[in-house]
């Protein structure tokens, strides 16, 4: 299995972000990722280093890539299968470091907290131990036009922090430039919906494969995901209301095109059992997914 090295990274999605790593459709490969702070914080004292702190405030979410999928062209679709996510043995979270994430100043001083990953669990204290449930926080392709910073999100994917992008899941992304130029990083060991504060940040190795689908469904305007339990449409916009409405509409179009139900039935179904979930609201754009249990799909 070929490896995309962790040293092949940038802070942008786009066409001019470095020498591409070429893969063929269907090829399984692994991608080494750095944590969202480029692994700069190795001990609690590093957060007090002005040079390091200034760096992490200006540079977040390094993504490994770009990965060029041979044969892909604008108008195509990438079907990305997340096969495995192997974590480093230590995770990091910060508290009190960003007034936007702690507006009431619950923590008067910034602090870096480190935890060990042992037997698939992270012990917060002697009474609380959490099972890891890793996800790929940032994954996307080159957008149409100028490069976009990897901490942002949009119809190209990006910093969506969607908990459905995990082991065993499939993600669909539209292609806007030749090769797609896939990039990924910002792996989280555990993250609650909304990403309130900071999750457990960690460097990792992600095993995946990418199938090239020539062309794109007419209804597809935003990233889509499928896990063992749900299908989801993932939309980012300036407000929760706008993102939730568009994710709901994207799901309607998906079901209409794939399953040929009429709009009245689909609209009624989604109103009753589809759930808008906040992936993240710590960025200028809010990311919301509309998730529908797959148990309803055979009935459609």
Rg, rounded, reads 19 Å
Report strand %. 35-45%
CATH C-level class of the largest domain: Mainly Beta
Q: Determine the number of helices (DSSP H or I, runs of at least 4 residues).
A: 3
> What is the strand arrangement across the widest sheet?
1-5-18-7-16-19-20-22-21
CATH architecture of the largest domain: Sandwich
**What structural class should be given to the helix and strand makeup?**
mainly beta
User: What's the SSE pattern?
Assistant: EEEEEHEEEEEEEEEEEEEEEHHEE
CATH domain fold name of the largest domain: Jelly Rolls
Largest sheet, strands/sense/barrel: 9 strands, mixed
Low confidence ranges: none
Mean pLDDT: 92
Bulk shape: globular
How many extended strands? 22
The tally of structural domains comes to 2
First-residue to last-residue Cα separation:
39 Å
CATH superfamily of the largest domain: Acetamidase/Formamidase-like domains
Share of residues in helices = 10-25%
Task: For this entry, give a set of tags.
300 residues, mainly beta, Endonuclease I-creI, 9-stranded mixed beta sheet, 3 helices, 22 strands, 38% strand, globular
